[in-house]
Amino acid sequence: MKIVLLDSLTFGATSLDGFEALGETINYETTSPEQTLERIMDADVIVTNKVIITETMMRECKNLKLICVVATGMNNVDLAGAEAHNIRVKNVAGYSTDSVIQHTFSMLFYLMGHSKYYDEYVKDGSWTESKLFTHVKEPFFELKGKKWGIIGLGEIGKGVANIAKAFGAEVSYYSTSGKNDNADFNKETISNILEKSDVISIHAPLNASTQGLIAHSEFLMMKDGAILLNLGRGGIVDEKALSYILDAKPIYVGLDVLEIEPMRQDNPLKNIKSKDRLYITPHIAWTSVEARDKLITSVIENIKSL
Prior knowledge:
The chain has helices at residues 17-20, 33-40, 55-60, 79-84, 97-112, 115-123, 126-129, 155-166, 190-196, 216-221, 239-245, 289-304, and strands spanning 2-5, 24-27, 45-48, 66-69, 88-90, 147-151, 170-174, 186-187, 199-202, 227-230, 252-255, 278-280. The protein is of the alpha/beta class and 306 residues long. It folds into two domains: 2-95 and 289-304, Rossmann fold, CATH 3.40.50.720; 97-280, Rossmann fold, CATH 3.40.50. A seven-stranded parallel beta sheet has the order 8-7-6-9-10-11-12, sandwiched between helices. Strand 6, helix 8 and strand 7 form a beta-alpha-beta unit. Helix 5 (97-112) packs across helix 8 (155-166). It is globular, with a radius of gyration of 22 Å.
């Protein structure tokens, strides 16, 4: 069996030794669109995170039996093409749930507690020069008693909801599909979520119902001082509208995902003045060491099932 890993750099330092036991393994840290076909031509198994595999490529790969997507979403693989060529496609679901939940709260507390400001206040020597033992210029609030609105109450959304509830927050949710009913939390319209919530977190997939869901008019509905967190998919939040609103309205925003990744030089968020109210991480919510270990182990099991 010939196994080709196309973008292993996305796995960081996670051990890939388990692939070697399954057959001849060729490991590419990154692969460009121009390189893809040549690299997969003789493969029995392709392992890809974000490298796109088209039907045209599959047509040329006479030995290809399995495409392993090292993620939950499979939008980088032409699934209809795979079915037409009798090629199995397997993803991994649920591996990063705990990691994403944890990062949600990491982003929240960074913004809510003005962590950047206070860290810099100490490190730049300002506290050394102070006559007081404390410094309270940037006030922060407790999560207890605050209203938390969740957009997308899947496994990650439910995990966030339960922890938020443990902190004493009042949790409600908006179902992006309209089909999710959960008796443990109040179901609300998107307008009510935006207007009433002190914290709003997004844990939804990108589809026709969520594309551009939070745009200019939705930002205007939000409370002053509210915090919006997007750990779902880029494209759910309109980044151009956000770049305008952040300099006009006192809200706080944390993004782990962007519409185009990596972030482009012309992204409008790079030019905002109110940088202290925007926190962006480079799509890392899924990448805890434990999540990546679980992910690779599951991919190896998918290959063994051939």
